[in-house]
Write a structure and sequence with these properties.
alpha/beta; Spore Coat Polysaccharide Biosynthesis Protein SpsA, Chain A; 2 domains; eight-stranded mixed β-sheet; 11 helices; 8 strands; elongated; transferase; membrane; Family 2 glycosyl transferase; glycosyltransferase activity
């Protein structure tokens, strides 16, 4: 068998009405793709007939399909990570399973990532088919904020339609709900000049309902703070906590030296002064932050030395050969 050029990874969760049309669209879109490719569907603990409907496509003779069933719902990031780990292609394309991303854009994106010599090509939903108030405006604000903080300027961080070089994305470990910030994580291992974007087609949702609401905005803000911390202090967390601790310690020293001068030189009573409490609290905070920084450094070194824990558990993997057997 010739080596696989492209792996198409699609995480799905409770998409029983979309899964069969999705497989058909991917197959039709890749019909003209000259190199070998594979489709990897990750069922993220669906509670409907998503897995059953997906397995019907295993008998398709011209489709190299792999279905990964996760043991429970681990979230989109973990599901995407499991698909990336299982991918055998030199390039990896990811997209959502709700039929809003158009698989017909994948061949053009594969061609573009090679011509532009990029490591990551992000889809840009230029004409996004979503609600203005609850989806477009929060997304626009989030994209501007993420770009400003991370330094990776993109129009659409939230588009799941992306094409990666497998050798690059497999260096990045996705955790929590960090799939929204994949370009920022990739920028941690390659220059941001090797990350680009391309306008893609976006369709309105046809089946089911969106898994996201306005509450996602608040989670994005919290996740963004985590991304900022990891991008700047992942390998040296002691600098983050230590800097704050030393600043608190310096403020505490100034206050306590002033109070000592006021007490022992000027002879004033300082026992009931709020400044004394503030100085003591700043001193204690300084000690706690510095020791937290030391512990964080120890944990970071252990993390980089031995980091083999997966963020998902696979229950079963289905491929066409097993079905025929």
């Amino acid at each position: 068998m010739p080596p696989i050029e492209l792996s198409v990874v699609i995480p799905v969760f409770n998409e029983e009405d979309s899964i069969e049309p999705l497989i058909t669209r991917v197959s039709d879109a890749m019909a003209s793709f000259s190199a070998p490719w594979e489709l990897i569907l990750v069922d993220d603990g669906s509670t409907d007939r998503t897995l059953t409907n997906a397995r019907r496509a295993l008998c398709h003779p011209n489709l190299q399909l792999k279905i990964i069933e996760l043991q429970k719902n681990f979230g989109q990031t973990a599901a995407m990570q499991s698909g990336i780990d299982a991918a055998a292609g030199r390039l990896i394309a990811t997209l959502d399973g709700d039929l809003q991303n158009d698989p017909a854009d994948i061949p053009a994106m594969v061609k573009a990532i090679e011509e532009r010599q990029l490591d990551l090509l992000v889809g840009w939903r230029k004409n996004r088919q979503d609600g203005l108030l609850l989806r477009k405006i929060p997304s626009w604000c989030a994209n501007r904020l993420i770009g400003k903080i991370t330094g990776v300027r993109l129009h659409d961080y939230g588009c799941s339609l992306k094409v990666y070089r497998a050798s690059i994305i497999k260096q990045v470990k996705l955790m929590g709900e960090m799939h929204r910030f994949i370009p920022a994580w990739v920028a941690g291992v390659v220059p941001s000049s090797r990350i680009g974007e391309m306008p893609v087609t976006h369709h309105a949702r046809q089946h089911g309902h969106s898994k996201y609401g306005i509450s996602r905005t608040f989670r994005v803000i919290l996740d963004l703070l985590s991304v900022l911390f990891f991008m700047r202090y992942k390998a040296r967390p002691g600098h983050f906590f230590g800097s704050i601790g030393l600043a608190a310690g310096a403020a505490s020293a100034l206050i306590l030296f002033y109070l000592a001068f006021d007490k022992f030189i000027l002879g004033n009573d300082i026992g009931t002064r709020p400044m004394l409490i503030v100085g003591v609290m700043l001193f204690l905070s300084s000690v706690q932050l510095v020791t937290t920084g030391i512990l964080a450094e120890m944990m970071a070194r252990a993390y980089f030395r031995d980091d083999e824990t997966a963020s998902y558990i696979v229950r079963e993997v289905f491929v066409r050969d097993q079905t025929n057997a």
